[in-house]
Amino acid sequence: MKVVGIIPARYNSSRFKGKALADICGRPMIQYVYEGAKKAKLIDDLIVATDDRRIYNTVIKFGGKAVLTKIHSSGTDRIAEAAGKIKADIIVNIQGDEPLISSRMIDSAVSHFKKDKKAVMGTMKKDIASIEESLNPNIVKVITDKDNNAIYFSRLPIPFLRDENSKSKVPKKSYYKHIGLYLYRRAFLLKFSKMKQTPLEKMERLEQLRALENGYKIKVYETEYDTIGVDTLEDLKQVKKMICKGRKK
After folding, report:
1. Pairing state of beta strands 3-9 and 45-50?
2. Nearest partner of 28 among 43, 41, 12, 11, judged by Cα
3. SS3 for 45?
């Protein structure tokens, strides 16, 4: 099976304009994402899909592959356009704003997804260590059934802890952070991108809910690796501190 990783990247992000090109210790953020994903052994090809010439030129300049797409309202639609023009069995959607992405995380996800022959879509989760994280609306949470199929994704803490006095007794691995890495069978991705937005998707502003609302299952694989999505300047400062500190060692 041919596996192609696609990194959607746009310049006009509503919360952080131009973040794909944000400088991190002398390199643009998109370069960290690309080079981190490029290390994955189970990805046969890697492409940045963007509607912005500045991002395209930057990727080409540092030696990466990129394609120009139309202007889309979502990353899913952007990668679907790119996927429609290539031959692949599995498409991996790698977020363009996660410069700390681990190649081992990607390989683990691809390995699991290849084995799940009936799965049309997959993603990842990481256990949440603190109550503070579970309450943060910028951290998407996920709950799954006994077969590791997603039940729901939300910006609110799920499951809801009814007894406030039992917070200290909550067992480990009760709350999970959703890691925004997606895997699709190519045929399903093209079908999914043509589906209309659904009510819950619009309310939570989470595209994956479109699949659940249309009756499709999403396999969720657990990972020990964490990553930080850069949505704000504060996130960028945190990532800069971590990366620059690591490069100085």
Report:
1. parallel
2. 11
3. strand
23-24 and 27-28 strand pairing: antiparallel
Q: Using DSSP, state whether 96 is helix, strand or coil.
A: coil
Enclosing H/E stretch for 124: strand 121-127
- Token pair, residue 149, equals 């199929």
The set of residues, in sequence order, having a beta carbon less than 8 Å from that of 71 and lying 6+ positions away, is: 51
The kind and range of the H/E element at 48 are strand 45-50
d(CA 106, CA 125): 12
- Could you tell me the pTM of the whole model? 0.91
How does strand 176-185 pair with strand 121-127?
antiparallel
User: pLDDT tens digit string along 29-77?
Assistant: 999 999 999 999 999 999 999 999 999 999 999 999 999 999 887 889 9
Tokens 């991108």: give the residue: 193
Q: Return the SS3 of 53.
A: helix
Dump the DSSP string for 138-194. TS-EEEE-TTSBEEEEESS-SS----GGGGGGPPTTSSEEEEEEEEEEHHHHHHHTT
* Helices 53-61 & 29-38 angle (0-180, nearest 10): 50
Q: Pick from 15-24, 115-124, 130-139, 229-238 the range whose average pLDDT is largest.
A: 115-124
- In whole angstroms, give the CA distance from residue 110 to residue 90: 9
Query: Given CA atoms 113, 153, 186, 229 in this order, what sign does their dihedral have?
Result: negative
Q: What does DSSP assign to residue 197?
A: P
Helix, strand, coil percent content, the chain, rounded in steps of 5: 35, 20, 40
